[in-house]
Design a protein that fits this description.
The relative contact order is 0.10. The chain has 2 domains: 63 residues, Orthogonal Bundle (Arc Repressor Mutant, subunit A), CATH 1.10.10.10; 111 residues, Arc Repressor Mutant, subunit A (Orthogonal Bundle). It is an alpha+beta fold. The strands form 3 sheets. A 3-stranded antiparallel β-sheet has the order 1-3-2. A 3-stranded antiparallel β-sheet has the order 6-7-8, with no helix packed on it. A two-stranded antiparallel ribbon has the order 4-5. 37% of the residues lie in helices and 16% in strands.
Length: 193
């Protein structure tokens, strides 16, 4: 049987390759370096880097093997749940791209997002704005709408594999006292005395 040449996993191809590897891992449940490398036509070294990063992130764990006990096999970590709603999936794709690119703009994030999710430019811009406000991003170059230039960002706070997301919070506002009496997720607020 003739073996095909392994594809080089460049920084630009890494998000796409890792997404394909993750889809395979979820489908088979138990896998080793060779399964990922063979299925994606990448080197064993590239597969090893991807899987070891997943171990560090808590996505997978060593099932058995390694060393004198034979080939190392991995399994998905039960605690790691993949989001299923569209907004979470898109945020996850954008976040993975941000973590792998040195600098990026909203258009770059779209290019690294799965096509079947049909992300829009306004979603990429909104996600960048939200993370900028949250302190995750820094602006390298400001946008200039007069020449059609998008802002360019750099990730300054990489908190891990799960995508930070903007959430709506319900709260009780007391207009008489000018304070929030209750914020969901935080609880009752102390009133200033």
């Amino acid at each position: 049987m003739l073996m095909g040449a392994n594809q080089t996993v460049t920084a630009a191809r890494l998000p796409e390759t890792e997404a394909k590897a993750w889809a395979l891992a979820q489908r088979v449940g138990k896998f080793g370096y060779a399964e990922i490398a063979t299925e994606l036509s990448i080197s064993l070294e590239a597969a090893k880097k991807i899987i070891l990063r997943w171990c560090d992130e808590g996505r997978v764990r060593v099932e058995h093997g390694g060393g004198a006990r034979g080939r190392k096999m991995f399994a998905l970590t039960p605690e790691y749940r993949q989001p299923t709603d569209r907004a979470s999936l898109i945020a996850g794709q954008f976040w993975t791209a941000m973590r792998n690119l040195k600098k990026f703009g909203p258009v770059d994030l779209l290019a690294h997002c799965r096509e079947d999710l049909r992300p829009e430019l306004k979603e990429a811009r909104a996600y960048c704005r939200a993370l900028l406000q949250g302190g995750y991003l820094s602006v390298l170059r400001t946008a200039d709408p007069s020449v059609g230039r998008e802002a360019t960002y750099v990730l300054v706070h990489n908190s891990g594999p799960r995508a930070p997301q903007e959430k709506r919070v319900s709260a009780v506002w007391d207009a008489n006292e000018g304070v929030y009496a209750f914020v969901s997720g935080i609880g009752r607020m102390e009133r200033a005395k």
